[in-house]
């Protein structure tokens, strides 16, 4: 798949996801401020990378992507709530996100906490919308369980916790990997597994796709670390070198830039090997997304 | 059912719930601080009133209570997370809860936010544990949807939001009812509906039980308002008159004490009428719990 084709694919699917998110964000019978605070962050843009992996996984099995749309939107709700809470003064205390004032800067801390709670809760109802596409209830329940697990204490929240506790200390590579694994990779693993479960994957395929997604998730975070050193402030929307200023441990600071680049490449290669072994119908998009992750500049 | 019998019933069932919560709180592969912060609030005691309604509803259909235990525990996770976030400095800024320092006083604000997020997320995995008792996947999915709805922006979080926005202003009775409805009643409605769904209730019974639970939830909150004026500080674990001090609107302050007591009684009477109309096997416990709510002194 060429770069142009991939960009077209991404634009088309991101539009699908964004349109559906706008529908979900227009939640009825809710206090106006709460609805506005939820929509402000949910519709603030962003790469919508995670839902793309749900849809691309369904395509890799030769299945229709529609049931993946609510599931992908649910993941964006989880991702968005985690950013809102992460930006709070008690956490990272960030004033800007994607070039806009953070949620609590606009709506106040209390409302930002509640908007985050509401988005997190809403994600589970949204996942269940996949029922409208004749997905067996058993499969959706499995997805509910996995979303709870990968997004919760054993997953993303655990990663946030370790990240916070590791601030202002020099981490070991093992600790940094734990943080990357849970803070970033777990949600991506969920996306690929959810797409595969919707597609009716076998356990063997689920295991291989988990390896694929896990590697891409780790690669994504290493690329984030690298971009923080080399990136252009306008493109990533936060001050370049901000991690370094707060003496945060990163891949480049722990193992050097060259070794970080090599690790990134190795992770992507192994991801592609796992894809091949899974014996899917058409892995071109999943493969292109893997490459996209390490070639992006923001 | 006599008071002594009810107390025995409550003690026995609260022990069941507490034991299971202790198992769930011992969550593995999680950073120690996060696990401790989650367990600190989840196992801090409390009346466990909500899970009792799940179990009592199953009994009212003559069904075994076991599938209600994970569902009841999930509700306690939701209730507990809402208290942790509600106590935060940006929200109610409370230092004590149930006679113990609040979560953020012990673990810091950032960890309290994450522990709340983790408990909220965990609730959905926990609901799915009802699958172990041969409950159809369709029924559990319906419960997942309802938990998300009653606990989220249209439900409890919406109520919290309205409550916060109404602080330091004199509310109308209608606004106060909205807050009571969503902040308190919605979660109780969920409990009774979830018990009924687990029991395989018909839609007509679900509607009547919803009216029962809604009334009891509103009565519970009016009793809370009344206790805040008349209660004993030791028993309710927070300073008596604290709502009045912060110029918070309450039933007694809006319609007077006598009218508040009358409303309370009317709500309970109507709840009992709905119970009768539902034609259940044995409503003695649900009836006794209704009375218990308005006779409790803390």
Task: Write up what this structure looks like.
Chain A is mostly helical and 298 residues long. Chain A has a single domain (3-295), classed as Farnesyl Diphosphate Synthase. In chain A, 72% of the residues lie in helices and 1% in strands. The first copy, chain A, has helices at residues 3-25, 32-42, 49-60, 68-87, 103-107, 109-128, 137-151, 156-165, 173-198, 203-230, 233-236, 242-245, 251-255, 257-277, 284-295, and strands at 96-97, 100-101. Chain A has a two-stranded antiparallel sheet with strand order 1-2. The longest helix of chain A has 28 residues, at 203-230. Chain A starts with a helix and ends with a helix. Chains A and B meet through helix 2, helix 4, helix 6, helix 7 and helix 8 of A and helix 2, helix 4, helix 6, helix 7 and helix 8 of B.
> Helix/strand-derived class of chain A?
mainly alpha
Low-pLDDT stretches of chain A are none
Q: Care to count the β-strands of chain A?
A: 2
- And the CATH topology of chain A? Farnesyl Diphosphate Synthase
Q: How far from one another are the termini of chain A?
A: 21 Å
How many domain regions of chain A?
1
Measured by DSSP, the beta-strand proportion of chain A falls in under 5%
Task: Return the average pLDDT of chain A rounded to an integer.
Answer: 92
Tally of alpha and pi helices of chain A:
15
CATH architecture of chain A: Orthogonal Bundle
Quick one: which chains have the greatest interface? A-B, 53 and 53 residues
Question: What would CATH call the class of chain A?
Answer: Mainly Alpha
Strand order of the largest sheet of chain A: 1-2
Tell me the helix content of chain A: over 70%
What is the rounded Rg of chain A? 18 Å
InterPro entries (chains A, B): Isoprenoid_synthase_dom_sf, Polyprenyl_synt, Polyprenyl_synt_CS, Prenyl_diphosphate_synthase
Keywords (chains A, B): Isoprene biosynthesis, Magnesium, Metal-binding, Transferase
Protein name (chains A, B): Farnesyl diphosphate synthase
GO cellular component, one term (chains A, B): cytoplasm
């Amino acid at each position: 798949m060429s770069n142009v084709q991939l960009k077209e694919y991404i634009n088309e699917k991101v539009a699908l996801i964004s349109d559906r998110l706008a529908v979900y964000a227009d939640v009825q019978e809710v206090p106006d401020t709460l609805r506005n605070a939820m929509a402000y962050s949910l519709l603030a843009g962003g790469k919508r990378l995670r839902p793309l992996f749900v849809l691309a996984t369904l395509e890799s099995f030769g299945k229709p992507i529609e049931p993946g749309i609510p599931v992908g939107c649910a993941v964006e709700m989880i991702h968005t709530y985690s950013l809102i809470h992460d930006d709070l003064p008690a956490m990272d205390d960030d004033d800007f996100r994607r070039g806009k004032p953070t949620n609590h800067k606009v709506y106040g801390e209390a409302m930002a906490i509640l908007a985050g709670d509401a988005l997190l809760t809403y994600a589970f109802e949204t996942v269940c919308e996949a029922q409208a596409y004749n997905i067996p209830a058993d499969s959706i329940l499995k997805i509910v369980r996995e979303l709870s697990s990968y997004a919760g204490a054993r997953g993303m929240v655990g990663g946030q916790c370790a990240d916070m506790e590791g601030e202002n200390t020099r981490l070991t590579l093992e600790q940094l990997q734990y943080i990357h694994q849970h803070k970033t990779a777990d949600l991506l693993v969920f996306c690929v597994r959810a797409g595969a479960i919707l597609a009716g994957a076998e356990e063997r395929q689920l295991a291989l796709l988990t390896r694929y997604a896990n590697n891409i998730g780790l690669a994504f975070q290493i690329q984030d670390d690298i971009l923080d050193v080399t990136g252009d402030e306008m493109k990533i929307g936060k001050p370049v070198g901000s991690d370094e200023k707060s003496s945060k441990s990163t891949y480049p600071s722990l193992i050097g830039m060259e070794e970080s680049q090599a690790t990134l490449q190795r992770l992507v290669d192994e991801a592609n090997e796992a894809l091949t072994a899974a014996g899917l119908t058409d892995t071109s998009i999943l493969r292109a997304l893997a490459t996209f992750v390490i070639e992006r500049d923001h």
